[in-house]
Amino acid sequence: MTRKFQTLEGFVAHLQKRVLPSLPVAVHRGVQDGAELIRDTVKGQIGQYLEGPEDGLPTAPLADSTIDDRIRKGFTPNDPGLRSGEMRDGYGARVGEEGLEVEASIGSDDLKAVYFELGTVRDGQFHQPPRPELSVAASRCEQKIARGAGRMIVRALEGRPLPNSRSHEEQAD
């Protein structure tokens, strides 16, 4: 829908009343949606071997001793990082306040998730190889997040309300 303004003052008033107040909300929404998409992608990756062009892939197979330990404790033998689901469910997303610059962090406060992501070293060698779940999820979601955040900002610039659905759930233009 094209808006027509009779005067320059009318256009300026539109920018001041409708566009400028909605831009921080749109930026926040785009960042929040992106952070939630990465979080959900990480949760979906836990328990799977990752393959692809991203750094650190493909992920290493579980060690025989790890598989034996998993079986002994009643877990499935070959689902990396997934035992009770506690580590997977511990991933979250935190998003800063509304503004034209919004920061987000995605991760877990569980040290097992940190060791899983970065690996562990013993005697100068990897004891547990890194499984870069967060960086892979961020890389895989990058384009979708950029498109979603862009749609939010364009809607604000057009003076249109933000949609009820998350931007990454919308169909591509």
Topology:
Elements: H1 8-45, H2 64-72, H3 86-89, E1 91-95, E2 104-108, H4 111-118, E3 120-122, E4 125-128, H5 133-158
Antiparallel strand pairs: 1-2, 3-4
Strand proportion? 5-15%
Number of beta strands: 4
Q: Please work out how many helical segments DSSP would assign.
A: 5
Which stretches are low in confidence, meaning pLDDT under 50 for 5 or more residues running? none
Assign a percent range to the helix content.
Answer: 40-55%
Mean pLDDT reading:
91
Spatial order of the strands forming the largest sheet: 1-2
The profile of the biggest β sheet is: 2 strands, antiparallel
Structural class: mainly alpha
Kindly, what is the distance between the CA atoms of the first and last residues, rounded to a whole number of angstroms?
Answer: 16 Å
Tell the overall outline.
elongated
Radius of gyration: 22 Å
Order of helices and strands: HHHEEHEEH
Architecture overview:
Helices cover 49% and strands 10% of the residues. With 173 residues, the chain is mainly alpha-helical. Strands 1-2 form a two-stranded antiparallel sheet. The protein has a two-stranded antiparallel sheet with strand order 3-4. It is elongated. The mean pLDDT is 91.
